[in-house]
C-alpha cells in the first residue's frame, strides 16, 4: 500500500467517524475532509472544487426546487383529498408511498419518482400528526430497490449491460433484471413497511423558528363564488378538506347569521367564517375555490402582483390599529394592504373579519407588495413574526408544475437529454412560470446538503485516483477465490454496497464488474450472475446519505442524521443479500 493510498483511507475513515459521531454538522465535516485532503496532497489544488460543478449537485438542487413547486401548487393536496380522503393509518400511507415510488422507479429516474411523492409524504405527515421522517427514508430506499427491476431503472444496470456486451458480445436486455429485481423490490418493500420504526422521528431541518410561534386559531373569512365545487354540499364536506385543522364558526347568508351545523348546505355567495391554522385554511380556500374576503390584488401591474406576499405580524402596544377595524381604516383603499386573518389568544372571534376591532397582541396576516408592507408595519406599530411561508391568499398554478415535471421525466426516459439538464430546466421553468416566487427559490434549495455533496466528491474520488479502489478489488478477488459460489456472489454484492458511497454506483460497476467476470471465468462459471451481483450491490446503497442522490435528497427535509441511515439501511442490506444470492443462482445458473 502506497503512502497516498494510506492517506486516502485515513481521511475517508476519519470523515466517516465524524459523520457518525454527529457532533459537527455534516457540511462542516465534509469541507474539513476536503481541506485535509488538499493539505496532504491527495486532492490537487486544481481539482479541489470540481464537486461544485458535478452533475449530482445540480440534480439534487434542481429536484428540491421542482419538488417544492409541486408542493406549493396545491395539486397534491387536492389529489389526496379526492382519491384518498380516508387514508389515515400511518402504515397504509407508508405502503402507498413506498409502493408508488418503487414501481415508478422501475421505469423513470428514481430521483424523479421520489421528487413527485415527497410533497405527498409531507401532506400525509400533517394528516397523521407525525414527522415527515417517518416516510422519507423508506421512500428513498424504495426508489433504489425499484430501480433494480429494469435496465433503465438505475445507472448500475445500464453500465453492467455495457460491460457484459464488451465481455460476451451480448448486452442484458430491458427485462433481464426483472425476475431478481422484482423479488428484491417486493421483499424490500415489505421490510420497509415494518422496519421504518428503526429510524427515530426527526424534525425537518427545513422547519425552523416558526414552530415556536405556531398559530392554530386564525379567524378568516371567505365567500363562496360561482364555480366552487362545494356549492350544494353540506358544511361537513368543506371542513373535511382541512383534515381537522380548521372549522367553520359562522355562516352569513343574505344578512342572516346561520349556526354552522354539519348538515347546512352551502349556497352561492355564502360568507363563511373560518378558524384554524394557516395551512389548513389555505387547503380549504384553495381546494374549495373560495375567495378570501380581504384578498384583492394590491397592484394591477403583473410584475408588482408577482411580488405580493402575506406575512404574520403582532399588533404592538401603542399601535394606531388598536380599537380600529379593517373597514373603518379602509386598509385596502388607503394603504393597499389586505387583512386576511386575525388570531387573538384565548378568544374565539365570531364577527365578520372586516368589523373586528383590533387589540394589542392580536396576530394578523397581512397581504401586500414587498415594497409597501415594511413601511406599513413600521408606521402602524406591527412587529413581524419569524418568517415562514404563508400561502393563504397566494396565486396557484396547479397544472404548470405537473406539466414541467412530466416533460422533464419524459425527456430523460426517452434519452432526449440527460437527467441533470432535464431537472435544471424544470427548476428554471418553475421560476419562469412563477410557480415559486423568486424570494423562495433559494429557500427551497438545501444549501448545507449541496455543499456537503460538492466537498465530498473530490474526497471520495481519491479512492480511485490513488489506486485504492484497485487495491480493494485485489483483496476481494483473493477472498472470493477461496469461497463457494454462493459466498463469492455474496462478497460481490456486499463489496459493491460498501464501495458505492465513495465511488458512486456507476463507477463501482466499472471497477468491480471486470473483476467479477474474471473471477467467474477462472472458476469456469458463467459471468451473468456475478455481473448481476455487482449491479445489485451498486444499486443498493442504503448505508449513507452520500452514495446516491435519492438518499441525499431526503436528508434535509427529513432532518436525518448521518447515523440514521444504517439503522434502517443495514438490516435492509442484509435482507437484499440473503434474497439476492439464491435468486441469482436460480435465475442465472452458474454452469
Q: How much is the radius of gyration in Å?
A: 28 Å
Mean pLDDT: 81
CATH superfamily of one domain: Regulator of K+ conductance, C-terminal domain
The total of helices stands at 25
Main β sheet profile: 9 strands, antiparallel
Under the CATH scheme, which class of one domain? Answer: Alpha Beta
Organism: Rhizobium meliloti
Pfam family, one: CitMHS
InterPro entries: Cit_transptr-like_dom, DASS-Related_Transporters, RCK_C, RCK_C_sf
Membrane topology: Multi-pass membrane protein
Structural write-up:
With 591 residues, the chain is of the alpha+beta class. Among the domains are: 210-292, 2-Layer Sandwich (Alpha-Beta Plaits); 302-384, Alpha-Beta Plaits (2-Layer Sandwich). It contains 25 helices and 9 strands. It has helices at residues 3-21, 26-40, 55-73, 75-83, 90-105, 110-128, 133-146, 155-168, 178-195, 235-241, 278-287, 302-306, 326-329, 331-335, 373-379, 399-413, 419-432, 438-444, 447-465, 468-481, 485-503, 505-522, 528-538, 549-558, 564-587, and strands at residues 218-223, 246-253, 256-258, 271-276, 291-292, 308-315, 338-343, 363-369, 382-384. Strands 1, 2, 3, 4, 5, 6, 7, 8 and 9 form a 9-stranded antiparallel β-sheet that branches. Strand 2 and strand 3 form a beta hairpin. Helix 6 packs antiparallel against helix 7 and helix 6 packs parallel to helix 24. It is elongated, with a radius of gyration of 28 Å. The model is unreliable at 207-213 and 300-306 (pLDDT under 50).
Amino acid at each position: 500500500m502506497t503512502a497516498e493510498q494510506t492517506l486516502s483511507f485515513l481521511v475517508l475513515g476519519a470523515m466517516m467517524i465524524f459523520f457518525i459521531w454527529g457532533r459537527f454538522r455534516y457540511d462542516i465535516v465534509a469541507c474539513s475532509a476536503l481541506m485535509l485532503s488538499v493539505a496532504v496532497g491527495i486532492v490537487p489544488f486544481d481539482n479541489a472544487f470540481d464537486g461544485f460543478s458535478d452533475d449530482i449537485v445540480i440534480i439534487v438542487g434542481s429536484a428540491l426546487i421542482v419538488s417544492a413547486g409541486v408542493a406549493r401548487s396545491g395539486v397534491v393536496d387536492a389529489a389526496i383529498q379526492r382519491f384518498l380522503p380516508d387514508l389515515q393509518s400511518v402504515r397504509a400511507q407508508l405502503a402507498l408511498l413506498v409502493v408508488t415510488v418503487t414501481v415508478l422507479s422501475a421505469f423513470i429516474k428514481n430521483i424523479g419518482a421520489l421528487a413527485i411523492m415527497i410533497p405527498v409524504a409531507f401532506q400525509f405527515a400533517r394528516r397523521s400528526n407525525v414527522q415527515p421522517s417517518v416516510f422519507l427514508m423508506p421512500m428513498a430506499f424504495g426508489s433504489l430497490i425499484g430501480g433494480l427491476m429494469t435496465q433503465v431503472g438505475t445507472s448500475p444496470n445500464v453500465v453492467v449491460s455495457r460491460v457484459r456486451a464488451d465481455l460476451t458480445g451480448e448486452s442484458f436486455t430491458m427485462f433481464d433484471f426483472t425476475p431478481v429485481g422484482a423479488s428484491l423490490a417486493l421483499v424490500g418493500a415489505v421490510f420497509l413497511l415494518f422496519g421504518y420504526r428503526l429510524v427515530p422521528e426527526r424534525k425537518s431541518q427545513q422547519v425552523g423558528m416558526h414552530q415556536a410561534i405556531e398559530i392554530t386559531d386564525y379567524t378568516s373569512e371567505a365567500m363562496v363564488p360561482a364555480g366552487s365545487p362545494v356549492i350544494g354540499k353540506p358544511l361537513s364536506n368543506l371542513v373535511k378538506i382541512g383534515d381537522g385543522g380548521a372549522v367553520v364558526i359562522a355562516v352569513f347568508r343574505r344578512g342572516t347569521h346561520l349556526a354552522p351545523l354539519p348538515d347546512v348546505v352551502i349556497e352561492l355567495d355564502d360568507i363563511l367564517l373560518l378558524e384554524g391554522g394557516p395551512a389548513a385554511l389555505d387547503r380549504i380556500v384553495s381546494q374549495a375555490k373560495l375567495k378570501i374576503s380581504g384578498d384583492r390584488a394590491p397592484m394591477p401591474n403583473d410584475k408588482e402582483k408577482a411580488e405580493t406576499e402575506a406575512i404574520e405580524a403582532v399588533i404592538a402596544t401603542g399601535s394606531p390599529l388598536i380599537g380600529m377595524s379593517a373597514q373603518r381604516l379602509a386598509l385596502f383603499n388607503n394603504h393597499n394592504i389586505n387583512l386576511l386573518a386575525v388570531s387573538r389568544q384565548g378568544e374565539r372571534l365570531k364577527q365578520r373579519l372586516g368589523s373586528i376591532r383590533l387589540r394589542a397582541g392580536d396576530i394578523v396576516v397581512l397581504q401586500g407588495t414587498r415594497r409597501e408592507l415594511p413601511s406599513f408595519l413600521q408606521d402602524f406599530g406591527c412587529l413581524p413574526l419569524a418568517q415562514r411561508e404563508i400561502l393563504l391568499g397566494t396565486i396557484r398554478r396547479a397544472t404548470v408544475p405537473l406539466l414541467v415535471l412530466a416533460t422533464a421525466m419524459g425527456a430523460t426516459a426517452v434519452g432526449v437529454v440527460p437527467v441533470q439538464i432535464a431537472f435544471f430546466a424544470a427548476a428554471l421553468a418553475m421560476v419562469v412560470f412563477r410557480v415559486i416566487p423568486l424570494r423562495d427559490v433559494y429557500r427551497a434549495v438545501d444549501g448545507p446538503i449541496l455543499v456537503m455533496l460538492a466537498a465530498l466528491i473530490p474526497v471520495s474520488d481519491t479512492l480511485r485516483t490513488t489506486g485504492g479502489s484497485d487495491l480493494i478489488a485485489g483483496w476481494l478477488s483473493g477472498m472470493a477465490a477461496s469461497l463457494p459460489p454462493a459466498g463469492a456472489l455474496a462478497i460481490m454484492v456486499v463489496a459493491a454496497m460498501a464501495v458505492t458511497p465513495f465511488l458512486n454506483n456507476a463507477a463501482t460497476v466499472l471497477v468491480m464488474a471486470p473483476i467479477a467476470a474474471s473471477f467467474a471465468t477462472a472458476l469456469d462459471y458463467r459471468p451473468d450472475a456475478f455481473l448481476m451481483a455487482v449491479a445489485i450491490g451498486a444499486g443498493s446503497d442504503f448505508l449513507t446519505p452520500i452514495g446516491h442522490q435519492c438518499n441525499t435528497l431526503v436528508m434535509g427535509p427529513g432532518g436525518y442524521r448521518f447515523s440514521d441511515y444504517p439503522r434502517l439501511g443495514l438490516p435492509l442490506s442484509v435482507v437484499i443479500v440473503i434474497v439476492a444470492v439464491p435468486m441469482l443462482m436460480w435465475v442465472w445458473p452458474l454452469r
